[in-house]
Amino acid sequence: MTTEPIRDDLAAIPRYVPGKALPQALKLSSNEVPYGPLPGVADAIAAAAADVHRYPDMGVARLRDELAARLGVDAGRIATGTGSVALIGHLLQAVSSPGGEVVYSWRSFEAYPIAATVAGLRSVQVPNTPEHGHDVDAMIAAVGPNTRAVILCSPNNPTGPALTADEIDRVFDAVPESVLVVIDEAYREFVTDPSLPDGVERYGDRPNAVVFRTFSKAWGLAGLRIGYMVARPEVADAVRRCVIPFAVNGPGQAAALAALAAEDEMRRRVALVTSERKRVVEAARDVLPEVPQTQANFFWLPLGARAVEFASHCEKLGILVRPFAGDGVRVTIGLPEENDAVLEALRSFAA
Ligand SMILES: *Cc1c(COP(=O)(O)O)cnc(C)c1O
């Protein structure tokens, strides 16, 4: 059967597997924060609803100005989009060229191979270290004349470790300025190790640095799809050209501003998550000592061939986690009683 005029390479794209959702089940499969929208957010959305017959501000001016002020950068260096997933795709489209390549660690965020292929770039996947972090030296060695970008996912989804300043410095020092160094910091707010770098602060002034952040995780707006990136003005402008007009909708812009105004409450909730993370990872290691360190709001169970089996075991107990067949299982940190249920599932699985 012919699929013309559809591009052949699309058939090879792995499908994005969303974390499962079943009513009643504990949903620990999508790295959401369990406390509902931040205070003020629902009211801001309700107020913005009165204007949904109008197109939103296409330039997303108020939100970009607010982010710029907080990050200490010019608003011209910020681009927004419908989730950072969409923006990563737009960035790769903006740098794509025939034969071009993008280097990233694997296992990492499942959106990368999809975004790369759609953008017409070849993925060069570099295996993680035995500790489930990025193998920075191997990544540097994988950069060649066709490389358009290197993606660093820090903390890494789905395994948890973040990159050190020394590791990221080495990447910047090794690659030419014509290669973008993309730092995906979707989980930056959950980083508690004070020695770990903030991508915007430490690398923001580099001409080839691009830092991605999102409102989906710590800020509790996954359902509204808002992400942003910081780069030099020319790169941010190129990405804005690729973004679909009016991508970030009015209620979303209002909600993001309301969420930023509730930053103290965001920090309080994140502290609850990270203190649970410490407790849960320690308890999980009693069963599975190989659980790697994590700086995000999830942890990784390197169960290998038993990954899918563990996810089914959890599902029978009413808990949804995210398996990666043959590799491991990613579990989101939830409420204390939810985390206890996962630990109990792990114990009964291992027994
Ligand atoms: C969740 C996540 C994102 C953000 O996704 P959105 O599209 O902003 O919801 C980006 N990168 C990584 C690694 C993620 O896990």
UniProtKB/TrEMBL annotation:
<keyword id="KW-0808">Transferase</keyword>
<dbReference type="InterPro" id="IPR004839">
    <property type="entry name" value="Aminotransferase_I/II_large"/>
</dbReference>
<keyword id="KW-0663">Pyridoxal phosphate</keyword>
<keyword id="KW-0032">Aminotransferase</keyword>
<dbReference type="InterPro" id="IPR050106">
    <property type="entry name" value="HistidinolP_aminotransfase"/>
</dbReference>
<comment type="subunit">
    <text>Homodimer.</text>
</comment>
<dbReference type="Pfam" id="PF00155">
    <property type="entry name" value="Aminotran_1_2"/>
</dbReference>
<feature type="domain" description="Aminotransferase class I/classII large">
    <location>
        <begin position="25"/>
        <end position="346"/>
    </location>
</feature>
<feature type="modified residue" description="N6-(pyridoxal phosphate)lysine">
    <location>
        <position position="217"/>
    </location>
</feature>
<protein>
    <recommendedName>
        <fullName>Aromatic amino acid aminotransferase</fullName>
        <ecNumber>2.6.1.57</ecNumber>
    </recommendedName>
</protein>
<dbReference type="InterPro" id="IPR015424">
    <property type="entry name" value="PyrdxlP-dep_Trfase"/>
</dbReference>
<comment type="similarity">
    <text>Belongs to the class-II pyridoxal-phosphate-dependent aminotransferase family.</text>
</comment>
<dbReference type="InterPro" id="IPR001917">
    <property type="entry name" value="Aminotrans_II_pyridoxalP_BS"/>
</dbReference>
<dbReference type="InterPro" id="IPR024892">
    <property type="entry name" value="ArAT"/>
</dbReference>
<dbReference type="InterPro" id="IPR005861">
    <property type="entry name" value="HisP_aminotrans"/>
</dbReference>
<comment type="function">
    <text>Aminotransferase that catalyzes the conversion of aromatic amino acids and 2-oxoglutarate into corresponding aromatic oxo acids and L-glutamate.</text>
</comment>
<dbReference type="InterPro" id="IPR015421">
    <property type="entry name" value="PyrdxlP-dep_Trfase_major"/>
</dbReference>
<dbReference type="InterPro" id="IPR015422">
    <property type="entry name" value="PyrdxlP-dep_Trfase_small"/>
</dbReference>
